[in-house]
Amino acid sequence: MPSTNLLKKKRIVVLGSRSVGKSSLILQYLENQFVENYYPTIEGSFQRSINYNGTEYDCEIIDTAGHDEFSLVNANHTIGTHGYIIIYSITSRNSLEMVKILYERILDFCGVQYVPCVIVGSKSDLQQHRQIDPSEAQEFAKLNNTAWIETSAKKNINVAQVFELCLSEIEKRSTQNAAYKPPPPEPTKNTCVIM
Ligand SMILES: Nc1nc2c(ncn2[C@@H]2O[C@H](COP(=O)(O)OP(=O)(O)OP(=O)(O)O)[C@@H](O)[C@H]2O)c(=O)[nH]1
Predict the structure, then answer these.
(1) Per residue, what are the HEC states of the chain?
(2) For the segment 32-81, what is each residue's pLDDT rounded down to a tens digit?
(3) Counting atoms of ligand 1 from 1, which one is nearest the CA of 35?
(4) Which atom of ligand 1 is nearest to the CA of 39?
(5) Of the candidates 33, 66, 85, 190, which lies 20 to 30 Å from 156 by C-alpha distance?
(6) Which atom of ligand 1 is nearest to the CA of 18?
(7) Which CA distances in Å does 26 have to 14, 21, 48, 119?
């Protein structure tokens, strides 16, 4: 039987195109800081205790290098991962297309039809450069049973909510699993086999 502590350990992977603001979101969340300059990420892992719904979760947050159409989702992204945050910038149509590709690649790699996931529209402070209508991203999220939210790391809008939503999606999934009862085995038929 797994201990309660183990059950509260959650691994969250943050994915998305280059420069959509993955590191900025994490930095704002963990350290209440925002950096205007762009420094490409290789990969980073951060520990953070998150209180959600009265429960303390011991979270590992993985910041990944920006993805393009040639990047593959690999075992490092998926093995042991409980939830995904996939980010596009509201100022970039290409980055929303990459969200769709990444989500499909995760499902393919894991061989499942659903994973706990939050789709995040970043840089919501840049309204004058908006290319993605909220309804478009919301529709994709709804179709795929994921959560969706817009954020600004710069203005610290909806930053903590992204991580809480991710835990909520993870919990939803584990409740569904707990409620799941496998179908009873098929009754054996009294058939006669002629050899
Ligand atoms: N206006 C605005 N700029 C942002 C916001 N978030 C990030 N940026 C800027 O966007 C650029 C890229 O941000 P990063 O956080 O480095 O993006 P990333 O997705 O981690 O990039 P990679 O490391 O290439 O994957 C930086 O210049 C940030 O200052 C935001 O909410 N608003």
Answers:
(1) CCCHHHHCEEEEEEEEECCCCHHHHHHHHHHCCCCCCCCCCCEEEEEEEEEECCEEEEEEEEEECCECCCCCCCHHHHCCCCEEEEEEECCCHHHHHHHHHHHHHHHHHHCCCCCCEEEEEECCCCHHHCCCCHHHHHHHHHHCCCEEEECECCCCECHHHHHHHHHHHHHHHHHHHHHCCCCCCCCCCCCCCCC
(2) 999 999 888 888 999 999 999 999 999 999 999 988 877 778 888 999 99
(3) 29
(4) 16
(5) 66
(6) 24
(7) 9, 9, 11, 15
Q: Which two tokens stand for residue 184?
A: 């009873």
pTM: 0.89
> Does ligand 1 come within 6 angstroms of the Cβ of 21?
yes
The residue to mutate among 26, 38, 89, 162, having the most atoms of ligand 1 within 8 angstroms of its beta carbon, is 38
